[in-house]
Amino acid sequence: MTAAALLASSRAVLLDFDGPITPLMPAPANMHAADVGRAALAGYEATVEPIAATSDHLAVIRWTGVHVPKALAAVEAACTAAEVEAAETCEPTPGSDELIRSLHRRGTPVVIVTNNAAEAVDTYLTRWNLTESVLRIVGRPVHRPDLMKPHPHTIEEALRTLRVPPGRAVLVGDSVTDVEVARTAHVPCIGYAKNPRRGKELREAGAEALTDTIAAIVPVDGP
């Protein structure tokens, strides 16, 4: 089944945020978010060498939750602020805004499932007048980085809201982690592959279908 056919046959659509909807954290925004997360650890006598060079602010949050939990609230707040700042200027992934609007017109509910903060997603949706087209945002669990994907928490929360069987929903994601969490939750996954290498990775991880553009899976509205 093609990616477009899989999406069209689904009763509900789960969308990852950073990538399928918008490139939220391209360089240098990604390093800025990681830097402010590391800066929030100052004063906690933390040895940050394991995360000193990463440009992944989510890795900083995960590491803090395990090694310096008393600093977690401060690190999360700093990273969330950086995400919101990025959401104030980022552009849609081509076709993503029309995908969300088209699904809404068809009566297919959309839930955003992401390791980013819900505040950042809400900022983006408001900017692009998409808030009414999204049923729910299931963002990064506050103070619980252990529940970020690939843990199935966000997917399970979305399914509870949607009240559809896992096999009748579909997740659109651009990472191996997205495919892994979809398989854990028994939800079919469309892999958004921006290049052949990523496509190979997503296919090998178990994605049911691939698309190299989001525009290619926008449902065609009937007459």
From TrEMBL:
UniProtKB keywords = Hydrolase
Q: Native species of this protein? A: Myceligenerans xiligouense
Task: Check the record and name the Pfam families matching this protein.
Answer: HAD_2
Query: Which terms in the GO cellular component ontology are assigned?
Result: cytosol
A GO BP entry? DNA repair
Q: Which GO terms describe its molecular function?
A: phosphoglycolate phosphatase activity
CDD domains under this entry? HAD_like (cd01427)
Keyword field contains Hydrolase: yes
Name of the molecule in the record: Phosphoglycolate phosphatase-like HAD superfamily hydrolase
Domain of life, per UniProt, equals Bacteria
